[in-house]
Amino acid sequence: MLPGPTNVPNRVMRAMLAPIINHRSDDFVELYSDVVEKTQQVFQTQNDIVALSASGTGAVEAGVINLIKKDDKVIIPVNGEFSNRLSQLIAGQGANVIKLETPPGQNATFDQVKEAFDNNNDVKAFYVVHNETSTGTMVNYLDRVSDLTSRNDAFYVVDSVSLLGGVSLPVDKWNIDVCMTGAQKALAAPPGISPISVSAKAKKYMIENPPPTMYFNLARYFHYYEESKHTPFTPALPLLYAYREALTIMLEEGLETVYKRHKVCSDALYSGLSAIGLTPFAKEEDRSISIVALNYLEGLQDKTFRDTLAQKFKVLVAGGFGDLKGKVFRVGCMGEVSPYHVMRTISAISSTLAMMGYETNAQAGLKTAEEKLKDL
Amino acid sequence: MLPGPTNVPNRVMRAMLAPIINHRSDDFVELYSDVVEKTQQVFQTQNDIVALSASGTGAVEAGVINLIKKDDKVIIPVNGEFSNRLSQLIAGQGANVIKLETPPGQNATFDQVKEAFDNNNDVKAFYVVHNETSTGTMVNYLDRVSDLTSRNDAFYVVDSVSLLGGVSLPVDKWNIDVCMTGAQKALAAPPGISPISVSAKAKKYMIENPPPTMYFNLARYFHYYEESKHTPFTPALPLLYAYREALTIMLEEGLETVYKRHKVCSDALYSGLSAIGLTPFAKEEDRSISIVALNYLEGLQDKTFRDTLAQKFKVLVAGGFGDLKGKVFRVGCMGEVSPYHVMRTISAISSTLAMMGYETNAQAGLKTAEEKLKDL
Does ipTM top 0.85? Predict the structure, then answer.
């Protein structure tokens, strides 16, 4: 129940055992074309796809350095570790970063974003972290952002590393120029492959203004793909096989069913854990579907709690990040998450709290969750 | 028999099936510490190690952007695709690149390198591709280079992506500041993990002068490792398990035995394939141990030859790169390469040539190879 890397189904793990092939062969062309096509389906896009052999941060960095140059004006909401990292990456390019800062657990509102656009008619790009893994918040107005970016043709970039696949993120419908994710979150593949989608407009810009990098120079990937459906550098083959299998499983289940499963399990976790006596960290309207962050009860020791949960019940959750270390813990609700995972997690957390001397209402928690799960 | 990615032993493939763990846990600390320690043994170094989740080019890029700044003077021998890429990466930083260019298949001599140092007493770094995968050459004087770099305390950087593990490359003894390799070559692991070693001097420089990148900022990796033995970003866990297993197998066999096996198999391939009537592409004294590049016989079609070899005999070799496309083919001799691979490859190549109407001396080739293999 980690906020990523998440559980990987056996079918996906076994896909890694395919023999190592020549990455300059027809076998590879078949594999990689399939990866690209299935990624397009999951991203709901016709845009170009690059599946980078790197972790999510690699794709996020590629999404920045291929678009942002010195003195470019960029708007970005910041309210946690990952949005902060993203803004650092943008600032690292020498850009003029307009940060919309809000307290952790709370998102900038759409009106605040709109105000920033109203005050900056020369903005080149809007970057946003869809789902802030460090605090368990999720931005809910991504469908409306292109009303703002379209005013002056600004690029619209979404870092959805810890959410894409868990909720509907229709890249084309919402006019998202660049969208990045990681395989090890809602897509339920092992870490190490990070796909990125690029609109025709952004692609043109990237080809005409390549960054001083090689590994993350997306123009190079477009060129190789168009020429031969290869990647410029030796890709992490076993992980590509696994990632393809994970996408296949998602498409077999059906995207709408996958989204609904995430939503219902998430609702059940929030309400069940609240009923046993815990409080979610994030503001209600900003709560993430894939990361359930909860405040520790008074005096509860982070390490003891998580160690007990892991050792006695084999349920892994994550601690807090940075300033939130020791103050919150985070439960992942993504990938193959199912009613079983939800019920078992609530039960194990409740039992761990009881073992540590806290009074919890296990019965209420389980009953509430069970009720919610009936929506599936 | 590809020049990488190479065959991966089953034991290594199966290691990927270990369950996905939390990369912020004690289990990860155990895994990654072991990876670092075993990498140190194979690199013959006490230097810091970073195992990047990226392909070889990623590690090579990290080895450049963490050390080279605008206007730095850098000497680099160039004679093929990969040394050319490396010099492009260096030039991309705005450096003043002194290229020692030689024809493909032939290395700059030590005297030419020395002359470049004599003429440039303000050089900041010497970069060299140990083994030029595109042409099958290998540099044989890496043991003497630090006599030159030590004159003015220049950095000494070796890109040994396609060779480290196949010959002895004692990083500490030869005073190599930064050394990069890829897991999918002589180390016989799947592609996607690329280790890099960094000397105390280079590390100090990198920490004081971090590059404007996040994913390849090595200072960040040093910091995380020192603080918690973690990596800053979610690593490609299954590949780390596989890479560790590959290192374990190498250390069990013994490094000297591994080097000897590579050398003897390589000698047998060169002499056996020469005896059947082919000629190696590279100049004799510069020939690579891990990549045997051979000239095509007059009129021999690259695609037909390699397709027949693959389809009839299930032996995969690679074609030529860039200008050498259609002119040479390349046989990998690395990783788990053994007398069986050598004999079978010579037999299959000889049979393919015969099927295509060429007269070859299969008997002489096999006999010569068998003789050479007696040294094992």
Answer: yes
